[in-house]
């Protein structure tokens, strides 16, 4: 699997050093493995240092226009000038350096939506080929900065995985295990059953000692005496010993990992108890000390150290919870926004917490109840209904070694991709055509890639995917609507027709009119965006013509001749034109969104009528 890492670049000088490093001719086959986006390439046959200077000048041009528009005083150490991404490939991927460079280029272009300048350099001086990517922190229009957060980090990894899979599928022959194979494997596999038991035990145990007692009751034996922890089940015919690192490769199961897991649960429980009963962070720290919890505060982060009198376990705030960050900023905002629910004196902390803890654990299973509860859990788990949906070949985007990508609808004129793994898939050959059986659980989650805008990437629940696939393919029987729904649908229909101000027009005519209006608005918006982009480029040139940096000025003169700019043009006049176009765009976008909502409502109503007519005809034929 491809691994991606992100680093923020602080300082223009460091950005230039980084450009110089990633373009190294010895690592990039004499500059042959370099690609870029959004750059003004004013050199025909640049050498190494000329190319470094040219890329740096392109980034500086962006910076200067942005700084002239937004004269912000940012702290030196907090200002981000670029984003550095390393995309590493395994030698087993069997991809050529040119393919790897293309993967990097396509990944970043999709991630940024083509709004930011970037460089991709592929290094081939090591056994594993890897891309170094530099994205400028300011967009091509010099209007905004790239905000790097969890969602963007997730999108980077997901997009990188998808594009890499598509590229790898061309040369790696797929070895498929179908849904049928997976079901056989799942029922007989010792590793799967052992993981299920351990997961159940972790969820229903109070602490590590309770976990060990219940594990014995559930016929799970553990050996922590060696380098790798070992597990096996005493009630299976085959007494297969399985190592902890084979059960969970990311975080191998071991005595330490289990102790960390239960320590995190305990710390979260203490914080849940103390936060409403503390009037400040210092008060929280003092009260936590009575419960064996120490909070070691740094500038931004906090380490939580839990002690039981014999040993200490330290957990950083980033690893503590997915729900809350629990850093210094979190506690500052918490105590500003919340009042003390209950005044608690230090002498009462331990007694009150024990009562709170006993209430929290009142529903926890006892050692004697664990076996019966697990059997019930297994029955329910295996009974979770899987929906089978047939997908036509036209809906498949690409088949890869471990599954396939299917096209899904994400709104008017918007298409997305969802990955279906092999174990949820069967392939049927029918009359020289392939048909795909997809098995989807309602509770599963699927990542949806938006083809045009990575900011719209999201997760979709299995139940929503089932609805969409069955709606597209008409593969589930029609369900009768209750009269109240019919009434609401009729009201919705009347409201829409009143909004559209129509007289004696069929639904299909209305749909065609709406589609035509939307298409025209789409063309108008594209034209306005292109005009705004040109004006922003003009603004960048005018600002950089006044620059004291000779290289930046040289680039600006080159761009000025390309744009055929008059010397009378001022930055104020250009900014005025940009504001006019922006107002027009805002107005048209609002109109566009309203038309799309109307069209989606109309399509639902037309579809509902067709379903109703089909059902009526089926009833007559019966």
Describe this protein with a few key phrases.
single chain; 622 residues; alpha+beta; BirA Bifunctional Protein, domain 2; five-stranded antiparallel beta sheet; 50% helix; globular; LtrB_central; LtrB_C; Endonuclease_MobA/VirD2; Tn5252, relaxase
Give an overview of the whole structure:
This protein is an alpha+beta fold and 622 residues long. It has five domains: 3-168, BirA Bifunctional Protein, domain 2 (2-Layer Sandwich), CATH 3.30.930; 179-253, no CATH class; 258-360, no CATH class; 384-473, no CATH class; 487-621. The chain is built from 19 helices and 19 strands. The chain has helices at residues 12-22, 48-69, 97-112, 150-168, 179-188, 190-203, 208-217, 244-247, 255-274, 281-289, 317-320, 328-337, 349-360, 370-383, 462-473, 483-500, 507-545, 550-563, 571-621, and strands at 3-9, 34-37, 82-88, 116-123, 130-139, 220-223, 230-233, 242-243, 293-297, 302-307, 312-316, 386-392, 396-400, 403-409, 415-421, 425-430, 433-441, 445-450, 458-461. The strands form five sheets. Strands 1-3-5-4-2 form a five-stranded antiparallel beta sheet. A five-stranded antiparallel beta sheet has the order 13-14-15-18-19, with helices on both faces. A hairpin with a 5-residue loop joins β14 and β15 (415-421). α2 (48-69) packs across α18 and α3 (97-112) runs antiparallel to α4 (150-168). It is globular. The two termini are 54 Å apart. Keywords: Coiled coil. This is Tn5252, relaxase. InterPro entries: Endonuclease_MobA/VirD2 (IPR005094), LtrB_C (IPR021112), LtrB_central (IPR048299). Residues 69-165 form the MobA/VirD2-like nuclease domain. Residues 487-605 form the Group II intron-interrupted relaxase LtrB C-terminal domain.
